Amino acid sequence: MKIAVLPGDGIGPEVTREAVRVIEALDLGIAMDEALVGGCAYKAKGHPLPAETLDLARASDAILFGAVGDPDCDALERHLRPEQAILGLRKELTLFANLRPAKVFAGLESHSALRPEVAGAIDLLIVRELNGDVYFGEKGFRQNAKGEREGYDIMSYSESEVRRIAHVAFRAAMGRGKRLCSVDKANVLETSQLWRDVIVEVAKDYPQVELEHMYVDNAAMQLVRAPGKFDVVVTGNLFGDILSDQASMCVGSIGLLASASLGERQTAHGTFGLYEPIHGSAPDIAGKGLANPMATILSAAMLLRHSLGLAQAADRIEAAVAAVLADGVLGGDLGGTAGTAEIGDAVLAKL
Amino acid sequence: MKIAVLPGDGIGPEVTREAVRVIEALDLGIAMDEALVGGCAYKAKGHPLPAETLDLARASDAILFGAVGDPDCDALERHLRPEQAILGLRKELTLFANLRPAKVFAGLESHSALRPEVAGAIDLLIVRELNGDVYFGEKGFRQNAKGEREGYDIMSYSESEVRRIAHVAFRAAMGRGKRLCSVDKANVLETSQLWRDVIVEVAKDYPQVELEHMYVDNAAMQLVRAPGKFDVVVTGNLFGDILSDQASMCVGSIGLLASASLGERQTAHGTFGLYEPIHGSAPDIAGKGLANPMATILSAAMLLRHSLGLAQAADRIEAAVAAVLADGVLGGDLGGTAGTAEIGDAVLAKL
Ligand SMILES: CC(C)[C@H](C(=O)O)[C@@H](O)C(=O)O
Ligand SMILES: CC(C)[C@H](C(=O)O)[C@@H](O)C(=O)O
């Protein structure tokens, strides 16, 4: 079993280090190899996603990813910017299914901007498509009929792209509360109309799942009003980007939220995937030992479960994290004083 | 001075009736003519936006709009559905600037799902572009290279479209807290890159306004975490649809929120525009006298201010609404028992 570790920029390396320590402590016989990605890869190799990084990722069963983003790279051409590394990995490795669970940890309800009874009820999973939509269509600048400069991006989804993510979402719903909410903007977009048609077709294979369609503007409202009403939400790349971040913030502690981006390839014991905390590279606190590594440690747990078939080890990590939080060992993001290594040590001590 | 009154579907007619009564009570010498729009127009005339409705709107200084949407019309072809009426009005009348203020009324902080101190701090204005973006680009179904069906929609903005809305937003910021947040997804979309370039260019004309750029996913997070930090937000049609609804729900009482959609044409005393409550047609409670007419009454106040230059009359209406709310006369949407006409009567009594 082999994991590619891509720490990336900013706080990426320090939070990844703690997650690696946790995996090592479990003594599971997993090989881990590191490679550069993002702004640091651009600086060292001239590209945010160097060929050797992609090769390492391809030769692994899973990727543990830190974060990318570096203010030094803001002025670069788009294709050289750090974010292109994550978009490139998603596309090159067909990581099409982003799973973002959002749930409030017991005792941390008061960290949300939502009223505690609203936040405490949140237990949802957003399934976001990652390989299509306006992210990867033709785009550029052109002259319009009036001779003016115009920026454009083509949004599109094909039937097979929607079908593939629909099956992931329906299966996820079967393993949870058996309710699926598909989010689109079918009253305006033909891309959404096709999305909706295919979702309805795939629903026939899952008669036990209660399916609902919701417009994206309404979904953004309901995620404020009553986020506890959602079980599984499935949506496209662009709406998923917005709604999954909104949902994460509802939980109130984005330093605790993990994510998985699964591909099509099966590994010996699961599905190939990339695992990353949902927070970014936070350049302002990078290198200071202040970042909360919990989201990356929980991403490592998802990795063990989904890509390596090590559900028991994943359970152990998640229980240790919950125990540390219950002890009140909190990072600065949650009003606590615990640093990166201290939180890592606390998790190791519980294991 | 002439207002076109377009009550529309569902609760549209009953809430509009109260707003019309309020305008009449002020005895401002305004002529008001009604026309059909939405599902009821389709049923009576075969089109959601009949030519005579558009003609009446064109011949007026402003439009007071109720709501459109009718479940009977869900199965119709897209171009005949009720929502096309509002999209058609926006496009045909060049109503390009949607202004959506969101502010919590004193005493109603506890109606938000956000903690009262978070909700109570909200006082923002979203300026949404309404004539461009993926809403009005070429769209349809096509076969992709693999021979599969694909839905597509072209997103685009030209320089002049962005410049026009940028000036509206900067001027609005000058009249408020002098802070503007422009929301885009420039790390992925070329449409957003052009948007950002033009915003930066227009900013030179408003050196007193503090400008910030924010990615849409981050904006969706910040609207949960600390919505009180925003002053004016400017964004495109699609992101504006999502974020303005999210912001409205943060306030907790969408039955109280008004909106203006302004055009380019100047009237004798202001700018031609369409005014509507942000809530929809709510078919489930239509015709029962239960709907809260406050948002439409407040839309009428915006109409008097922006299109007819009657700022004093607008102030009087807004003060009357605030007084009625302070008296605890609340609709069912706010946990009260007051019906549509009762709330209208209470506002009239205060005038
Ligand atoms: C960095 C950016 C391109 C990316 C996205 O929009 O997908 C990020 O926001 C995310 O959600 O992983
Ligand atoms: C009805 C729909 C087409 C419309 C939109 O998306 O603009 C509505 O959601 C709005 O915000 O006015």
UniProtKB/TrEMBL annotation, chains A, B:
Its main location: cytoplasm. NAD(+) binds at G280, S281, A282, P283, D284, I285, A286, G287, K288, G289, L290, A291, N292. Its EC number is 1.1.1.85. InterPro entries: IsoCit/isopropylmalate_DH_CS, IsoPropMal-DH-like_dom, Isopropylmalate_DH. Residues 2-347 form the Isopropylmalate dehydrogenase-like domain. It catalyses: (2R,3S)-3-isopropylmalate + NAD(+) = 4-methyl-2-oxopentanoate + CO2 + NADH. The record marks Y135, K185 as: Important for catalysis. Keywords: Amino-acid biosynthesis, Branched-chain amino acid biosynthesis, Cytoplasm, Leucine biosynthesis, Magnesium, Manganese, Metal-binding, NAD, Oxidoreductase. Binds 1 Mg(2+) or Mn(2+) ion per subunit. Pathway: Amino-acid biosynthesis; L-leucine biosynthesis; L-leucine from 3-methyl-2-oxobutanoate: step 3/4. Mg(2+) binds at D217, D241, D245. It is found in: Cytoplasm. The keyword rRNA-binding does not apply. Its cofactor is Mn(2+); Mg(2+). It holds the Pfam family Iso_dh. It is an enzyme of class 1 (oxidoreductase). The keyword Protein transport does not apply. GO terms for molecular function: 3-isopropylmalate dehydrogenase activity. Belongs to the isocitrate and isopropylmalate dehydrogenases family. LeuB type 1 subfamily. Catalyzes the oxidation of 3-carboxy-2-hydroxy-4-methylpentanoate (3-isopropylmalate) to 3-carboxy-4-methyl-2-oxopentanoate. The product decarboxylates to 4-methyl-2 oxopentanoate. This is 3-isopropylmalate dehydrogenase. It comes from Novosphingobium capsulatum.
